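Deliverable D2.4 — example input (C-alpha cells):
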C-alpha cells in the first residue's frame, strides 16, 4: 500500500501549533495537541444550522447580510406584519409593518430596507414601506398592485419589482428611485413565485410559476441590463417558491423551492453565464426568505409542511476548515 510520502512526495510535517496558512489537502502533526490534522476545502460550500426565528411563517421577505438581517411579513397564518432582526447570533422582534401581508418583496440592509407589494387579506396590494432601522413608514405605492413578485435592489432608495400576479401573471417591471416607482422594460415571460437578485441596472430573475390556473414550474432565467430583459442560462431544476441571496447580477445564489410535487433543498449558484449546482440546504423548504451574498447567505423559515417554519441556515462558500484525524 502506498504511504503518504509516496502519494504526496513528502513526509507529514510536525508543527508546534497548526500552520498559519495551510492549503487544501495539507496534512500535519500538532505537537501541542498531539493530533494529526488536515485542511479541508469544499468547492460546493456548506449550509449550517443557525438559530430559529421567533415566529414560524412562510411567503415572507428578507434583507441584509448573514450577520445583520431583517425578515418581515409572511403567513403564520393569517397574513403577518411581524418583523425580526438578526445580529448574527439571535433573532429579536422589532417594529411591525404597517400593513400585514404575505407574498411580498424585500430589499436592502438591516437598517435600510424596503417592503413592497404582497397580498393582504382579500386583495393584492401596491403598498410600499421603508425601514429606517427602528420603524416602517409608508411611502409612494407601486403603480401595479400585485403579489408573489420578484425583486432586486440594494437599499430602501434603489429597487426593482418585476412579474408577480394580479388576476393574471404579469410582465410589468417597476423601478424605485427613493421617491417614486416608474414602469420600465417588461419581462419576456410572466411568472410568479420566482427568485430575483441584483441591482436596478443589472438583475436576474430565475424560476417561478408560468401558469397560475394549472401550476407549472419553470427553470427560465432572464437578465436585466437596465433597459431590457434577455433570456439567459436556465436553472438546472425548474421550481417556484424559491429565494435568492441578493448580491449582484453576476454572482447570485438561488435556493429552496417546490417542483410541483416535492419541496426542494437544491441550491444553485449564478456565475454570470449559467447556474451551477452547489451544496443543498440541510432540509427541504419552499416559501422561504433569505439574505446575504453568494459566498455568505442565509435561508430563513419556509413552508409549514416541513419542519422549516422557524429554521435558519447559513451558507459559506468555499468552506475551509482544519479537521482532526481520529486515530483511535
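Example output (designed residues):
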Amino acid at each position: 500500500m502506498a504511504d503518504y510520502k509516496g502519494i504526496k512526495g513528502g513526509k507529514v510535517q510536525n508543527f508546534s501549533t497548526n500552520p498559519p496558512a495551510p492549503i487544501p489537502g495539507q496534512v500535519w502533526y500538532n505537537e501541542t495537541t498531539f493530533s494529526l490534522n488536515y485542511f479541508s476545502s469544499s468547492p460546493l460550500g456548506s449550509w449550517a444550522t443557525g438559530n430559529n426565528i421567533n415566529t414560524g411563517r412562510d411567503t415572507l421577505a428578507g434583507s441584509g447580510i448573514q450577520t445583520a438581517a431583517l425578515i418581515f411579513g409572511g403567513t403564520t397564518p393569517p397574513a403577518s406584519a411581524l418583523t425580526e432582526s438578526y445580529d448574527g447570533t439571535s433573532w429579536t422582534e422589532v417594529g411591525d409593518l404597517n400593513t400585514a401581508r404575505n407574498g411580498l418583496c424585500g430589499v436592502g440592509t438591516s437598517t435600510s430596507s424596503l417592503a413592497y407589494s404582497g397580498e393582504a387579506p382579500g386583495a393584492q396590494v401596491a403598498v410600499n414601506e421603508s425601514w429606517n432601522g427602528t420603524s416602517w413608514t409608508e411611502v409612494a405605492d407601486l403603480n401595479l398592485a400585485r403579489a408573489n413578485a420578484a425583486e432586486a435592489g440594494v437599499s430602501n432608495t434603489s429597487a426593482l419589482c418585476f412579474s408577480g400576479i394580479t388576476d393574471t401573471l404579469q410582465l410589468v417591471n417597476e423601478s424605485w428611485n427613493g421617491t417614486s416607482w416608474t414602469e420600465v422594460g417588461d419581462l419576456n415571460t410572466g411568472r410568479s413565485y420566482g427568485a430575483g437578485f441584483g441591482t436596478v441596472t443589472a438583475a436576474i430573475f430565475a424560476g417561478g410559476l408560468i401558469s397560475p390556473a394549472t401550476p407549472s414550474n419553470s427553470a427560465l432565467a432572464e437578465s436585466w441590463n437596465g433597459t431590457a430583459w434577455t433570456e439567459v442560462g436556465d436553472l438546472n431544476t425548474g421550481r417556484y417558491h424559491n429565494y435568492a441571496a441578493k448580491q449582484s447580477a453576476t454572482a447570485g445564489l438561488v435556493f429552496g423551492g417546490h417542483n410541483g410535487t416535492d419541496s426542494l433543498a437544491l441550491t444553485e449558484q449564478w456565475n454570470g453565464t449559467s447556474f451551477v449546482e452547489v451544496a443543498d440546504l440541510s432540509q427541504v423548504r419552499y416559501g422561504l426568505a433569505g439574505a446575504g451574498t453568494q459566498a455568505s447567505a442565509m435561508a430563513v423559515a419556509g413552508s409549514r409542511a416541513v419542519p422549516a417554519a422557524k429554521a435558519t441556515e447559513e451558507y459559506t462558500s468555499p468552506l475551509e476548515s482544519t479537521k482532526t484525524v481520529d486515530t483511535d
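DSSP finds one helix and 30 strands in the chain.
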